[in-house]
Amino acid sequence: MTTIAFIGLGNMGGPMAGNLVKAGHEVRAFDLVQASKDAAAELGVGIAGSGKEAVADADIIVTMLPAGKHVLSVWADILPAVKKGALLIDSSTIDVESARKAHALAGQHGCLSLDAPVSGGTGGAKGGTLTFMVGGSDEAFALGEPVLKAMGRRIVHCGAAGNGQAAKICNNMILGISMIGVSEAFVLAEKLGLSHQALFDVASTSSGQCWSLTTYCPVPGPVPTSPANNEYKPGFASALMLKDLKLSQEAAQTAGASTPLGAAATQLYGLHNAWGEGGADFSAIVHLLRGRDAS
Ligand code: NAD
């Protein structure tokens, strides 16, 4: 049993903290929102009065917060109360620069740290089947891996500090671009009189094959479990795709990488959100490309 502090008990963090309790750890947690604390308490999570109170005596501290500024301010607040040699793990999706700043902060306080963003969404958080993409030293990874295994199925060490976030945004940039490509192909097929099923049957077994087509097919019919068959309920919301694409573009600018398709995808998802479908699954971008709602 390890004593774990958990800060940020939202849609993802609450069930993740619950899975740590299920695995036999003692978990003390904090969130700003009472309803989130109440929901976590029902899963057996101990609730502390503040972040500092939650981390006192903890061997491992996990944060699951909205963005880089929240992570940096929470880490700066709690670190003076964290015991030397403890491990801090941030599983939020944040910009690579803030992730590297957070690692530096932890180092200044004599603590180990990992950036460990996830994929798998709220279903994966509840089911303990998340994939963790992890950046940090070998020593920190060895310490953190058993705890991450209580919340996820696949734990990938991507290299040094910040590389977990780098892997996450590179992957999601591929995903955003590929979903737009697949959606454009279906819209073109409609204009050419080619059925959704016929395009799917060909492309899913040809060189056009990809996850956006075969798992998350953006039109109803060919893949019964895709969000398109469930009124485009997320899944992975378009607003979250936009967040991750923006992070990819910030990183590309800082690193001097040329990502013209990533930039175009960011613009299109920006339009999709402004169009009013930010809460829909990101595959609903097909509506924007078609220019109307009919499926
Ligand atoms: P959420 O908004 O539901 O939860 C964030 C929680 O952080 C909230 O409960 C909020 O009250 C709390 N919080 C904010 N500032 C705080 C502070 N100073 N101290 C304590 N608590 C504070 O968000 P979520 O859906 O759980 O996502 C969390 C992170 O995981 C985000 O970075 C998101 O991009 C990433 N993510 C989400 C999903 C998803 O499907 N929801 C999937 C992959 C990754």
Automatic annotation (TrEMBL):
Pfam families: NAD_binding_11 (PF14833), NAD_binding_2 (PF03446). The active site is at K168. It catalyses: 3-hydroxy-2-methylpropanoate + NAD(+) = 2-methyl-3-oxopropanoate + NADH + H(+). Pathway: Amino-acid degradation; L-valine degradation. It comes from the Bacteria. Residues 162-289 form the 3-hydroxyisobutyrate dehydrogenase-like NAD-binding domain. One of its GO terms (biological process) is L-valine catabolic process. Keywords: Branched-chain amino acid catabolism, NAD, Oxidoreductase. Its EC number is 1.1.1.31. SUPFAM superfamilies: 6-phosphogluconate dehydrogenase C-terminal domain-like (SSF48179), NAD(P)-binding Rossmann-fold domains (SSF51735). Residues 3-159 form the 6-phosphogluconate dehydrogenase NADP-binding domain. GO terms for molecular function: 3-hydroxyisobutyrate dehydrogenase activity; NAD binding; NADP binding. Belongs to the HIBADH-related family. This is 3-hydroxyisobutyrate dehydrogenase. It comes from Bosea vaviloviae.
